[in-house]
C-alpha cells in the first residue's frame, strides 16, 4: 500500500482543507489525510507535514509555518511582502529557523487560486474588468510563471527527501486549444439590414477594396475570410487535438455581433463543430449582469445541439467574482475557461492546472472547475502589439513554463485571427508554430 502523508494543523478550516486537496491531492497526486489530533499525528508511521507555528515532531516532519490567512474568516486587506524564491517571487514570508520553507506556501497558493485580491477594491479597465495592472503577479513580474504548480513541486521534493518511500504522482502535461467564435463570418449570413449597413460604411469611407471583397464573398466568388473552420479542423487533427469552441449565441448588441442565432447556416456550423470538438457557450457582453439573458442564450445553444451545455467562457473575459461564477453554477455550467487576462499573457491565478473554484465570500469549495488559459491571440496583437517573431518567443516561453511543471497549456484563439488578412496577416503561421510547439 502506498505510504500515506498525514498533515497536521490545529485549525482544519475550510480554506485549509481546500488548498490541501489542491496541492497534495491534485498537483502532487499524494494519498494524504489531515488531522488536528496531535496524538494521531505523533503516532503516524508514514510521512508527516506539520502546519503549525512550531514543530510537533522535530526532525521527523516537514514544517510549514502559517501566516494566519487560512484560519481567518472574511476578506481582509493584507499588506503583502515578497521574497526571492526559486527564480521568482513568493509572499507571506515566515521567520523561523525550524520552517522547511521560507514562506507559507499553502496560504500563498490559496491567495492566488482563490483570487483573493479580486475581492478587494481594485482598479477596473475600460470594460469594468479587474485590471492586470492591479495583480500582484504582474506588479512583481511573475505572472508568466505558474508559481502554484512550481511551489507544489518544490514542496513535493522536500517531502520525498524527508520520506523517501513517499510516492508522488504529479499530473502529466496536456495541451488544449480553445477557439472563441465572436463572429462566424465577416460578411455572410448577417441579414439584409447589417449587410446594407456594411456597404454604406464602405462607401462612406471610400473603402473600395472592402466593398469589392464584401461583394465577392456575397456572390460566393470568394470564401469569407472568417471561415477558417476547415483549416482549424485540419490543423487540430494533424496533432490529434480535441479543441473547445465557445460560441457567442446572442442577440445583436454593441459588443455582441455574431450571426443571428436563427440563421440556419450558423446553426449548421455549430452542429458541425460539435462533431469533432467540445462546444460551450460564450456568454454575451450584455448577459454579464443579466443571468436571465444568459439562461436564454444557453438554452438556445442547447436546443440547437440537442445536448446539455456545461462549458463556458465569458465574452470579453468579463469576470466579476463571485457573481459571474455563481451565475454559471446556477445554470449548471461545470467548466469555465475565463481565467486569464486580456491585456497580459500568463497565469492570472498563478496556476496552469484546472482547479475547483473556492467561493471566498461563502467560504466554501464548489464543483465548478476552472481551466486557466495562458495566452490569447488578441493579447499579443492588440494589447501588446508585438510582431510575429516576438509573439512566438512569448508562446514558446509560456509552453516551456507549463511543461516544466506538468501543467495544462490552454490557448485562446479566434477563428478570425486565422484569416490571414488585415491585422491578422501572418498569424496563421503563428498558430501553426504554437501547435507544433505545444502539442509535443
Give the SSE order as H and E letters.
EHEHEEEEHHHEHHHEHEHEHEEEEHHEH
Uncertain residue ranges: none
Radius of gyration: 24 Å
Helix content: 25-40%
List the helices and strands and how they pair.
Elements: E1 5-8, H1 14-27, E2 32-35, H2 38-43, E3 47-51, E4 62-64, E5 82-85, E6 88-91, H3 105-113, H4 136-139, H5 147-162, E7 174-181, H6 192-204, H7 208-218, H8 229-238, E8 244-247, H9 264-274, E9 278-281, H10 291-305, E10 311-312, H11 323-330, E11 335-336, E12 355-359, E13 364-370, E14 375-376, H12 377-383, H13 388-404, E15 408-414, H14 427-438
Parallel strand pairs: 1-2, 1-3, 3-4, 7-8, 7-15, 8-9, 10-11, 11-13, 14-15
Antiparallel strand pairs: 5-6, 12-13
Helix pairs in contact: 1-3, 3-5, 13-14
What would a concise description of this structure say?
The chain has 14 helices and 15 strands. A hairpin with a 4-residue loop joins strand 12 (355-359) and strand 13 (364-370). Helix content is 35%, strand content 15%.
Amino acid at each position: 500500500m502506498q505510504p500515506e502523508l498525514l498533515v497536521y494543523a490545529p485549525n482544519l478550516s475550510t480554506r485549509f482543507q481546500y488548498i490541501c486537496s489542491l496541492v497534495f491531492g491534485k498537483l502532487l497526486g499524494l494519498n494524504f489525510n489531515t488531522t488536528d489530533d496531535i496524538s494521531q499525528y505523533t503516532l503516524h508511521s508514514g510521512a508527516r507535514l506539520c502546519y503549525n507555528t512550531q514543530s510537533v515532531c522535530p526532525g521527523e516532519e516537514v514544517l510549514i509555518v502559517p501566516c494566519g490567512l487560512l484560519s481567518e474568516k472574511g476578506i481582509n486587506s493584507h499588506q503583502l511582502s515578497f521574497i526571492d524564491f526559486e527564480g521568482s517571487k513568493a509572499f507571506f514570508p515566515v521567520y523561523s529557523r525550524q520552517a522547511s520553507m521560507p514562506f507559507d506556501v499553502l496560504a500563498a497558493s490559496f491567495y492566488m487560486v482563490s483570487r483573493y485580491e479580486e475581492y478587494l477594491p481594485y482598479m477596473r479597465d475600460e470594460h469594468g474588468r479587474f485590471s492586470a495592472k492591479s495583480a500582484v503577479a504582474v506588479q512583481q513580474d511573475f505572472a508568466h510563471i505558474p508559481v502554484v504548480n512550481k511551489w507544489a513541486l518544490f514542496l513535493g521534493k522536500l517531502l520525498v527527501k524527508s520520506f523517501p518511500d513517499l510516492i508522488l504522482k504529479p499530473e502529466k502535461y496536456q495541451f488544449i486549444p480553445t477557439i472563441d467564435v465572436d463572429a462566424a463570418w465577416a460578411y455572410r449570413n448577417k441579414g439584409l439590414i447589417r449587410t446594407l449597413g456594411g456597404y454604406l460604411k464602405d462607401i462612406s469611407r471610400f473603402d473600395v477594396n472592402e466593398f469589392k471583397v464584401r461583394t465577392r464573398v456575397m456572390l460566393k466568388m470568394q470564401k469569407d475570410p472568417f471561415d477558417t473552420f476547415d483549416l482549424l479542423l485540419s490543423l487540430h487533427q494533424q496533432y490529434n487535438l480535441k479543441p473547445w469552441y465557445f460560441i457567442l449565441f446572442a442577440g445583436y448588441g454593441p459588443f455582441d455581433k455574431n450571426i443571428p442565432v436563427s440563421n440556419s447556416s450558423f446553426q449548421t456550423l455549430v452542429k458541425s463543430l460539435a462533431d469533432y470538438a467540445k462546444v460551450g457557450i460564450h456568454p454575451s457582453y450584455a448577459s454579464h449582469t443579466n443571468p436571465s439573458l444568459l439562461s436564454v442564450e444557453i438554452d438556445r445553444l442547447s436546443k440547437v445541439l440537442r445536448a446539455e451545455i456545461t462549458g463556458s467562457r465569458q465574452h470579453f473575459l468579463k469576470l466579476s467574482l463571485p457573481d459571474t461564477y455563481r451565475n454559471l453554477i446556477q445554470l449548471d455550467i461545470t467548466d469555465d475557461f475565463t481565467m486569464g487576462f486580456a491585456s497580459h499573457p500568463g497565469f492570472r491565478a498563478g496556476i496552469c492546472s484546472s482547479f475547483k473554484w473556492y467561493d471566498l465570500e461563502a467560504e466554501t469549495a464548489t464543483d465548478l472547475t476552472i481551466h486557466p488559459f495562458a495566452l490569447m491571440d488578441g493579447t499579443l496583437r492588440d494589447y501588446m502589439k508585438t510582431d510575429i517573431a516576438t509573439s512566438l518567443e512569448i508562446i514558446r516561453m509560456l509552453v516551456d513554463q507549463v511543461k516544466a511543471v506538468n501543467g495544462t497549456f490552454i490557448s485562446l484563439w479566434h477563428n478570425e485571427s486565422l484569416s490571414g488578412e488585415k491585422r491578422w496577416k501572418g498569424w496563421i503561421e503563428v498558430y501553426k508554430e504554437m501547435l507544433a510547439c505545444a502539442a509535443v
